[in-house]
Design goal:
Layout: H1 3-16, H2 20-40, H3 43-46, H4 59-76
Length: about 80
């Protein structure tokens, strides 16, 4: 058995101690935190340069819809 086998066995043992519920919570928390960050971005950062503000030019809307769908799918699966 090589050193890498020992490291791999140790790492696998550590990962097996993590409960599936906590992994699922972390898996859902990351896109939720990303959604909160996207929605809090200032208007100047999400508009294309030189374009006046309109609701359909705000990139946060599309990102929020995509992240919402992703969160919904992850929550159901």
């Amino acid at each position: 058995m090589t050193f890498l086998h020992a490291v791999g066995d140790w790492f696998r043992g550590v990962l097996l101690t993590i409960s599936p519920g906590s992994v699922r919570a972390l898996f859902l928390a990351l896109p939720v935190l990303l959604l909160i960050w996207v929605l809090r971005l200032p208007r100047e950062r999400v508009l294309p340069p030189g374009v006046p503000y309109r609701w359909d030019t705000d990139l946060r809307l599309g990102a929020a819809v995509a992240l919402g769908i992703q969160i919904l799918i992850y929550a159901v699966l």
